[in-house]
Amino acid sequence: MDESLIMEGAIRPRRLRTSRALRGLVSETAVRPEQLILPAFVAEGAAEPRPISSMPGVVQHTMASLRAQARRCVEAGLGGMMIFGVPEHKDATGSGALAPDGVLNVALREVREEVGDDLLVMSDVCLDEFTDHGHCGVLDDHGRVDNDATVELYAQMAVRHADAGAHVVGPSGMMDGQVGAIRAALDAAGHLDTVILAYSAKYASAFYGPFREAVDSSLTGDRLAYQQDPANAREALREVDLDLEQGADIVMIKPALAYLDVIRAVRDHVDVPVAAYNISGEYAMIEAAAANGWLDRERAIDETLLSIRRSGASIILTYWALEYALRNRP
Ligand code: PBG
User: Fold this and answer.
1) Annotation-wise, does 226 bind a ligand?
2) Model-level pTM greater than 0.90?
3) Radius of gyration of the chain (CA)
4) Fewer CB near the last or first residue (10 Å), C or N of the chain?
């Protein structure tokens, strides 16, 4: 490149920014509603939707309001809905997760009935919403999460979800071997087409804070013994490789914003679709700042989703999915 051309003003990158039409013409990245997934909470026995104070605008749904929300997702052209159940009663083994009339299994059945194949019905395969100690699995005699016993429960849970109508199951507990066990159980039950969206690289993050309120979690302590250390990026590639060897169809990185480098590294490392979860704390930060008038809410949301897309995730789980799709209708 001849430096003198810049000095003389012949090369002017600003030229392509001069109008909305030009900016649109040269835009490199777009967030597509059909690749957005709305995470949604449903509370057992709720008579009215219950607001979640740390996530303004997000609620614990009733069965009826969840169905109505699913319908809105279809109309907005979203890709799917990831459903989390909040049971009335929790116990040490999270037995509500396996009960066919447990809140999540009922919700999956109802939403699938509502949307058919017009929206992907997705489930979180994890025990933390169902256990009274709040951990993602069952505990051994020393109070540690028992990996292999937990994986067996996940496999049964995934089959229940597929039986109930889930198109996609999302194992999120970070137990070793969970994807392979779930794939084998699904196949044995005849659910050959049920997709596994693996939460492959899931970090032990402070940004899950508001989610704990969203699912009435009773967790004390932390998940450092099973979720990943925020210091480690290479380890994410190893987790992704293991999940792919075990049959994952889509791999996910979570959280998104503090891990954009990990999203990029995974995108460059694999050939399967890559998803990212724009989590509760990332939502809460922007909502809280906007409520204080400290930033322009809609621009901050758009920029956030664009950054996740640009870093390499084609699929984004975000609590803004519906709003974004409605606001950006063609
Ligand atoms: C586990 C699960 C969690 C989230 C999604 N699935 C919580 C955790 O791992 O501690 C967090 C999502 C969010 O913060 O928005 N069931």
Assistant:
1) no
2) yes
3) 21
4) C
